[in-house]
Amino acid sequence: MKKLAYKSIYLAALSALFFVGGCETDVNTNQEPISFSADIFSSVKGKKVAFQGLTNNAVSWSWNFGDGASSNQQNPVHVYSDSGYYTATLTATDEAGTTITKEVQLALDITPYVLLTGGATDEDGKTWRLSSAHSDSDYFGNADAELTPFDGAPNPLPAGIFGAGLGMAEVYEDEFTFYFDGRYEMDLKADNAAFSGLVYQFVADGGASVVNDGGADFGLCTASFSPDNNATFSYTEDSVFTVSSVYGGTVSFEGVSSLDFSESAYVGLLDFERKVMIQEINDNTMRLVMFLAASPDFIGVNTNAVILTFEVVP
């Protein structure tokens, strides 16, 4: 009789356990369903990007990679052809047809050329102007191999020197736009005048084009100039840059990047030498070395270097 009683108690306890478990299952079944959501995770290596569509209750995924390519996979891998800045977009859809759109900003394999032009997807190009704030590395130099500072000129150049010091504040307004495909535009604003070398202008037309000679003490002026609507530029990286110089005939700089322009185009300073050297460039500023032939005794031969910082036009 005791064994039978113990068995009955055991079965009763087991039944109670199943009953409690069943109640818990019913409670879980009645919980609110997971809501529809979507987000993006991306992993980048060079120009190759692995995307993950982090979604709940989505039934389809539509990706726009920002370069004209697309995918309907949840977790696609895409290789971009060009370095640059891209916006990738995921549109996730649930069973009811509701959609959620998410974006991720990508900066892929950013090279100095992309920093200069804004990249292949920037249809407006990237526009630069001379920085009126200048930097601690802006100065007037000599056209020698060391670009030594020019005696008698402030070093570094103080903020706004071309305005307050030389009366040529208009040179800070001129804008220069570089496009990824090599096109180039110059906007010389209201005065239609280029920041220029004084000797160059006197050789060109006897000085008739000079608008403002406030920088004459440094061989500088502004002069009327008509930009070429079909101008182009070329960018060369890690090369030998050679220009004329009164210090030995020529001077060369090894392992530098440079910009060159079609015949009737220039950047920053218009003089005999249109080719310029890039000393430093980042997303918002670049520093250029522009050469100047400031002596009437050595026509067309560089005597000086003008090292100036440019800033991106917002």
Textual characterization of the structure:
It is a single chain. The protein is mainly beta and 314 residues long. The protein folds into 2 domains: 37-109, Immunoglobulins (Immunoglobulin-like, Sandwich), CATH 2.60.40.10; 114-312, no CATH class. It is 15% helix and 40% strand. It has 4 helices and 19 strands. It has helices at 2-29, 112-117, 161-165, 198-205, and strands spanning 37-45, 48-56, 60-64, 70-71, 77-79, 84-93, 99-108, 126-130, 139-142, 175-178, 184-187, 193-197, 210-212, 220-224, 233-245, 249-261, 276-281, 285-292, 304-312. The strands form 4 sheets. Strands 8, 9, 10, 11, 15, 16, 17, 18 and 19 form a 9-stranded antiparallel β-sheet that branches. It has a 4-stranded antiparallel β-sheet with strand order 4-3-6-7, with no helix packed on it. The longest helix is centred in the N-terminal third of the chain and has 28 residues, at 2-29. The model is unreliable at 1-27 (pLDDT under 50). Keywords: Signal. Pfam families: PKD_4 (PF18911). This is PKD domain-containing protein.
